[in-house]
Amino acid sequence: MRFLYKRREFIATLGGAAAWPLAAAAQQPARHLPRIGSIQNFRNENFEAFIQGLREAGYVDRQNILLETRFYGGVLDRIDEFARELVALKCSVILATAPYAIRAVMSATSTIPIVGIDLESDPVASGWVQSLARPGGNFTGFFLDIPELGGKQLELLKEAMPMIVRAAVLWDATIGTVQFRGTETAARPSGVTLESFPIRSVEDIKDTIDRAAREQLHGLVVLTSPLIFNQRSQIADLALKSRLPTISIFSSFPKVGGLMAYGPSLASMFKQAGSYVDRILLGANPGELPIQRPSKFELVINLKTAKALGLTIPETLLVRADEVIE
Fold this sequence. Notes:
Blueprint: H1 7-14, H2 22-25, E1 35-40, H3 45-56, E2 66-71, H4 78-88, E3 93-97, H5 98-108, E4 114-118, E5 139-143, H6 149-160, E6 166-172, H7 177-187, E7 193-199, H8 202-214, E8 219-222, H9 226-230, H10 232-241, E9 246-248, E10 260-263, H11 266-281, E11 298-302, H12 303-308, H13 315-318, E12 323-325
Parallel strand pairs: 1-2, 1-3, 3-4, 4-5, 6-7, 6-8, 8-9, 9-10, 11-12
Antiparallel strand pairs: 10-11
C-alpha cells in the first residue's frame, strides 16, 4: 500500500528546511493527503499521546495527513455511524479504541487497515485476529489481555492493608465480563472474597459505591473501560468519602485521589499506535504486524489518600513504587 505524500517521500521532497518550509506542505491539495480516521470517547491525555506518536513519526495534521477524529462522548449509538462515515471518507488507516469501536469498524470494512487499542478483550477469543504474532486480515493493535493482572492488584491492596478479607470489584458490564472473570480466578489464591459490582452507565456509579460501603467491604478493585476511565475522579472521590481503599490499573487514578494504581502506561500504548499507523502508511500489511501487549507496569501510591483513610503503607511497598504522591 502506497500513498502520495508518504512521510519519507514528503521529507525527501523538502530538500532541506531552508528550501521548503513546512508551511509549503500545507498548500498541497487536501484531497491528495492520506486520511487517518479515529474513533474516541473523549479527547484526553491518551489521545494526545497518539497525536504525539504521529508527530514523532513525522506527521502533522493538514500538512502531510488529514486527521479525521470522531468523539462519541459516551453515546454508544453513535459509534456505528462514525465507523461508516470514516469508511465512506476512504481513510487510509482507522484507529479504534475500546471494544465498541473495534467491533463497529471491523463490521464497516474488511479492507481499510485498522489499529485497535483495547484493555478489556482477548483479540483471538474475540475472533478479531488469527494469532498474536500474525493477526491476518486488516487488523492489528495493542491489547492489555492479562487476566491475571487483577490478582496482582488485589495482592498489592492486601499488602497495603493486610486485614482485607472482602473486596468489591467495580467493572463495566457492557464490555468487562472477560476481565471480571479473569480477576475472580486470579484472586482465589489470595483468600480475599470478591463481590461483583457491575455498572452500565455514569448514573450507576454512586449507587454502586454506596452499596459497597453499606456492605462494609474492605476495599475496591477498579477494572477498566472508557466509562470508568472518564469517571475516575468521581470514583476516587466517592470511594474516599466511603472510606474504601482503591486500586486501579490507571496510573492517573491516584493522581485524582485514588489510593493505588498498578498497570501499564496507557499513553505509551497510544503513542505506539502512532508508530503502527506510520508503518501501515509506508506499506506494511496490518495482518503481519504483531499484536502488542505491555511489558512494563508501574506502581503509583497516593500517601495523602492513605493518611485520609487511616492507613500506613508499608515501607516495603513504598520502595517498590514508581511514583509516590505526597
